[in-house]
Amino acid sequence: MKTKNIIIVGVGGQGSLLASKILGKLLLSEGYDVKVSEVHGMSQRGGSVITYVRFGDKVYSPVVDKGEADFIVSFEILETARWISYLKPNGQIVTNTQQIDPMPVITGAATYPENLVAKMREKGFKVDAMDCLSLAKKAGSQKAVNIVLLGRLSHYFDIPKESWQAALKSCVPEKFLEINKKAFEFGETFQN
Predict the structure, then answer these.
(1) How far, in Å, CA of 148 to CA of 185, rounded?
(2) Domain CATH for 119
(3) Are residues 135 and 151 in contact, defined by beta-carbon separation less than 8 angstroms?
(4) How do residues 124-153 score in pLDDT, each as one tens digit?
(5) Domain residues for 37?
(6) Based on the structure, what is the number of domains in the chain?
(7) Could you tell me how far CA 84 lies from the centroid of its own chain?
(8) pTM higher than 0.90, yes or no?
(9) Which of 186, 84, 187, 86 is nearest to 127 (CA)?
(10) Which of 7, 38, 88, 163 to pair with 79, CA 20 to 30 A apart?
């Protein structure tokens, strides 16, 4: 299998590192060679966080270059726009529509761009966008946005739900497992 590339982007504290860990375990369990590279940035201060997940028959490097990502999985809509140059032609975006103001917006030096999903679609990008925060809260915890996104991402893979659930169980503490199972299901069954 040709190597596939996933970029997971978000803001520090949103759970992108756990999402990449679950995805890595899932893909390993399906027999792929997997490389995961985490670039934290200013994650502790709400800054941009990016993780690369590459998988296939044989993967030599953990880094994804511009124009090579098959998927961008994004926890925040402005982060989607920031990293969109990494998406390959005909690549797929799976994004949360949540907006988290970056420092220039907070200080008044800039305004948050409007209608980002519509603008991306107008430019021909395939965008699967949903309010993951609301679904995570409905599942029992606003921290489960990452799992809602993984549930949505599962639509694009021919991997049994049981394998996704096993990866989730191996990475999430038992006391949070039921909430995360619900969050995954909400993402998986969401209708645009």
Answers:
(1) 7
(2) 3.40.920.10
(3) no
(4) 999 999 999 999 999 999 999 999 999 999
(5) 4-189
(6) 1
(7) 13
(8) yes
(9) 84
(10) 163
